[in-house]
Every structure is written in C-alpha cells, then in structure tokens.
Request: fold
Amino acid sequence: MKIIRWKYVAPRLLLLAIMASVVRFGCDPLLEWLIVSGGQSATGAKVELAGVSTWIKSGKLEIRDLQVANPESEFRNLFQAEQIVLQLDSLALLHNRMVVTNGAITGLEIDTERSTSGELVVSDATSEEGPPLFEPVVTKASDLASDWLENASQRLDTDFVEQLQTPQVADQLVENWKNQSESLRSRAKLLRERGQKLAEEFREIKKNPLRSAQRLPEIHAELKSNQQELVSLQQEIKELPEQARADRQTLTTARQQDEAFLKKQFEFEQLDGDNLTQVLLGESVAEKLQEACDWIAWARKKSPSNAAKELAAQRGRGTTVTFGKPQPRFEIQHVGIELTAQVAGTPMQFVGYLSGVSSAPHLLAEPARLELASLGDTPVKLLVVSDHREQVPREEMHFTCPALPIRGRTLGNEEKLAIQLAPGNADLSVDLLLEGETLSGQIAFAQHEFHLTPLASPRVNRHLATALEGALGNIKQVTAEVELTGTLKQPQFKIDSPLGEQLANEISTAVVKLARERGEALLAKSTAKMNSQLEKLTAAKSALEQELLANLGENQKIFEDLAGTASLGGRGLSVPQISSTLGKGVLRK
Reply:
C-alpha cells in the first residue's frame, strides 16, 4: 500500500485549484480590461462594455453592449454593438496566438449619439479646426453663382430712365423752344412798335416838312433796318416746320443711343455651367469623398505596421531563420455582421461579413474584406478590400445602389437667392482605389426625377424669381460622372455633368428675355414721353407761327403806307425795298 505524501501533494493541489479559479473567474475581468485599455489606446477615446464572458473549453468569447467613442466628436460613437460572439481557435491560444475562426456581430450601429462625453481626458482647450478641404472650392462656386444672380436682380430693379438721353434731349428741346418763342414774340412786338413810331414821325413830317427835313436820312435808315429785321423774322418763321423735323431727328438719334445704352446695361455674361455643377453636386461629392478618405486614413493609422516592409529593411543586418510556417499573432478569419447605418439620412439594415484581418497581413493568402448588403426594398452593396500584404498598401471600395434616397437641401444664400433641391432617388455607383497615397476612382450618379425651386428673398426682383422658377422647372433629370484623383491627404475631383451647362443656359435665357422685356418697357416709357413732348412742341410751333403771322399782318399796312408816302422837302423818301417786299405779300397768310 502506497502512502500519500500529503505534505507534498496538498500544496500542489491547492495551487492548481487556485490557478483554475483564476482562469475561471479572473479571465473575464482580465479580458474586459484588456479590451477596454487596448481599444482606448488605439482610438484615443473611451471604450465601454457591459461585460465579457468566455468559455475556455469551447473557445468562445462574448462581448456585450460595446461602445467605442469617436475621438473627433465628444458626444458621438464611432460604433456600438449589442453583442459580439467570437469562436476562437483553442490550439492557437496555446501557441500565444488569437485566431477568430468564426463569429457574429449583432446590433452594430455606426455614428450613434452618446449621453456622456467620450473624451478620455476633459480639456478646456478647444481645437481650432480649419474648414473642410473642399469647402473653399464649393463656397467660391456658390458665391459666384449667387453674385451673378444678385447682380442680375439689381440691374433689373434699377430705373435707368434718369440715365436715358431721350427724356433729357426732349426737356432741352422744350427749354430751347421756350426761349426761342419768347425771342420771336419779343422781336415781332418790337418791330410793330418801331413801325408805329415811324408812322407817327411821318405824320409829324407832313405837318411841318421843312422843320423835320433833317430827320429824313435817319428815318430812311430806320426803315431799311426794319426791312432787314422783317426779312430775318420772316425767314425764321419759315424755318419753324423744318426745325420741328430736325427736333424729331434729334430725338430719334437720342432714342437710338438709349437703345444701345440699355442693351449694354442688360448684357450679362454667360452663367458658368461648371460653377453651377459645383454648387449643385460638388457639396455632396466633397462631403462623401472627404468622409471616405477620413475613414481610410483613420483605419490605416490604426492598422498594424507592414511587417514585410520591416523585414525587407532588416535583411541587410543579418540572416533571419524561421522554423516552421510563420503565423500572425492575431487573425480574424470570418465574422458575420448585422449592421444599422445611415445612408443619405435614411437608416438601413445590412448583413455581411468581415474576413482576412490580421496583425501580419503579409502572412495571409487573401486580403482583408468587408462585404455588406442591405435588407429591405432598397438594394445597397458595399465591398471594401484592404490589401497590406505588399510594401505598398492598397484599398478598394465599391458601392452600388440603384435607388439611393436623396435628402432635400438648400443651396446658396437664402438672404439673396438660393435653390432648393427636392428629395428623390438616385442611381449611384462608386469605385475608389487607393494605392499608397495615390487616389483614383469614378462616381456615377443619375437622378431621373429632379426638381429645383428658387428661394428668393423679398429683395430679389420678383420677375427674376418667376423667370428662374420657369427655367429651373425645365430641368427634369440629372446625370453626372465624377473622376477622383489626388492623394489621401489632398483628394481632388472633377464633375462631368450636363446639369450645370443646361441650367446655365436655361437661367441665362430667362434672364436675357427678362432683360429684353425690361429694356423694351423702359424704351416704351421713354418713347411715349418723347412723342407726347414732340406733339406739344410741334403744336406750340404751329401756334406761334400763326400768332406771328397775324401780328406781322397788322404791321403790313403800316409799312405799305410808309413805302407809298410822297416826297417831302425837295428830297424824295423812297423805300423801294420795303415796297417791293410788302408788295409781294410774303407776310400775308
């Protein structure tokens, strides 16, 4: 019979019992601590979970209510998951390796709200972030379009009547005629007074010829001067009808100058179609592209270093001897995913899988893959391939959705003039390739029910707002192709779409038509005033002509009597010029 040496066995059994208890009851808290500390170290933000459960024998690991805070947004989560169940390779664990052969992630949500701050250390310092990379480009395009429309509105509202030549010329002609008519009346009156004075002197001479003989040469000179004034006055009266025709021609010339002036004022440069394309589509493209690049940059930053590249750099320093096939310390072979995510503002359910994730990608035969497909009536597919097996990392992303919900939004400055895009559905496909830092790819977009509505402030010309509404109503659909270039830090894109050019043509045509109508209205107003003044001017000249002829007709008898007066004092008083002039009856009606 063997004697059990309890002093030797008992301590060892107790140690095994303690170790078993530690493994059984201490493994879960230890794993929870490792997950939280490791996650926080990787993300720089809080990682929280409700609990961890392990089954050593079956190699099963369960994580409940995991939340990973967004380091860029204090009250947002990068993601959260209700449950993560992972099947581990027990044999690999014995070799200090963690291999997830299978698993499932359920209740996964992206970019959710937090009730508490996700910052690890609360800091009063506020980071001054610059504007988004593409914001200056999109903002500049929006400002150019808004400025063009605002300029058009201001010019259409401007009353150019005061700057037109026709009203000014008409007013000047009226003023000139007022001065001329007063001058003609004054001269006719003066001529009549002179005639009456000469007649009085002739009567005095008849009474006392000898005493007044010395005045005869002066009287003869005065008669001659009056004759010349009479001829001059007659000539001006004859020219009044011709002057009226000249006034009309002057006004016609002024009107032609006004036409040229208004045409120049209402000339608008063609609205830039590329700018409009940037305004309508650039913001969405820039936002999504920037978001995709940010996610890729973050994922690359958190990814393990390229061991193949490091090994290549170390080969010059010695010889590496490997026993057996090298294996990564950490590997996810396949994990199923149930995901809820916002797509264009609409929550969608997705199912898919994640595979090929490893701490040493160069040791695997296949790259890492994430594949998701939507559930429900809107088909969405996403495939992300991340290949870090070579020295140059490579990421591919393929996204397709034939009926992507598009939220309505407002573009432009609502205080000036903005455009509202109605909600709708679009056919979208994205192919993105990132090799090293070089970015390339294409985006294809088509929306077959496309509605644009202008939103004009009360300051905007109402006729312009109405014209824009009609122009925008002609745009029924939109297609676009986007070429992606640049680098991960400085992505660039070029949008090729007929939308901007079509919209520019529609708006420009509407504005030009409105400007033409506005110019015609101003010309019509000016012409109506011109015709009214011209009619009054012509009537006034005709009336003055009759008035002057009547007044000069009264003087005609006086000059006839003076011309026929007999000789006095031995010297004849002969006024043949006046007799001849008056005898012809040129002043008669």
